[in-house]
Amino acid sequence: MRSDYRRYFENIPVCPHCSVELSCCESPQIHVGDGLGWGSEVLYICLNDECSLFVNGWAQIEEKYGHNSSYRYMQLPGSNEANLMMVGSEDAFKGSVIDLQAVDAQNVRYQKEKEALADLETAIERKNLEPALHLILDEAAAIDGRRKAITMLVPINDLACIDPIRNHKFRDTSLQTESMMAISLLLKANYKKECPYCYELIKSQAKVCMHCKKEL
Ligand SMILES: [Zn+2]
Ligand SMILES: [Zn+2]
Fold first, then answer.
1. Residue 2's pLDDT band (boundaries 50, 70, 90)?
2. Whether the predicted pLDDT of 190 surpasses 60
3. Cβ contacts of residue 160 below 8 Å, gap of 6+?
4. Lowest CB count within 10 Å: 24, 64, 76, 168, which one?
5. Which residues, listed in sequence order, are joined to residue 203 by a DSSP beta bridge?
6. For residue 57, which ligand has an atom nearest its CA?
7. Ligand 2 centroid to 186 CA: how many Å?
């Protein structure tokens, strides 16, 4: 859901049959009637179960076609043309109603991803771990940006990246492997290793862990 759905919520029309505001629904991939899309990612549909069009539609369709279906009123964004959608149940289209709060949350997330990608450009010279770490830990971010962020861990050279990355659950195992490789390179570059007992960072030549005092 990358496109900006928010604009569709600005002027939502009302149903001419019941005067209730239409619902903003995600368009089905294929229009069942003609096999073509509606040419719009969003449809405004009256989902009011008391709407006279819907209430009376059952008997009309039964009489005309002998199906157990009814009509829902529909308009496309930017058009006043009335369309009728045939529906086989009360629940049809109710699962595709777009949740504005989810859209907003997604926009905020996407905005942060874009900012992090822009900040990545100067992250090495500024020794700024934040944008790289943000991208690596954002499972919804685009994989190319996350991959690029991983390659920057060694040049940024901030050991603070280790704990959050180690504690993160990666959905993509290749990203996880690349992150772990970057961490071990980062440790090597800093003459450090992780104690196998307590996972604290210690000097790579250490024979005894300075934190848990175990022999290595
Ligand atoms: Zn209506
Ligand atoms: Zn230890």
1. very low
2. yes
3. 129
4. 64
5. 192
6. 1
7. 19
Q: How far is the CA of 84 from the centre of ligand 1 (A)?
A: 11
State the first-to-last Cα distance of the chain, in angstroms, to the nearest integer.
50
Sort residue 50 into left (φ over 0), alpha (ψ -120 to 50) or beta: alpha
Distance separating alpha carbons of residues 51 and 87, to the nearest angstrom = 14
Ligand nearest to the CA of 212: 2
Task: Please count the residues of the chain.
Answer: 216
Cα atoms in the 13 Å half-sphere on the side-chain side of 74: 19
Query: Helix (H, G, I), strand (E, B), or coil: what is residue 111?
Result: helix
Give me ligand 2 centre to Cα 85, in Å. 67
pTM: 0.66
Averaged pLDDT for residues 99-112: 89
Question: What is the tens place of the pLDDT at every residue in 23-71?
Answer: 999 988 765 555 557 788 899 999 999 999 999 999 999 999 999 999 9
Measured in Å, residue 14 CA sits from the centre of ligand 1 at 8
What pLDDT score does 29 carry?
72
Tokens 């704990």 belong to 163
Both structure tokens of 172? 């993509």
| Closest to 128 measured CA to CA, from 146, 149, 113, 145 | 149
- CA distance linking residue 99 with residue 97, whole number of Å: 6
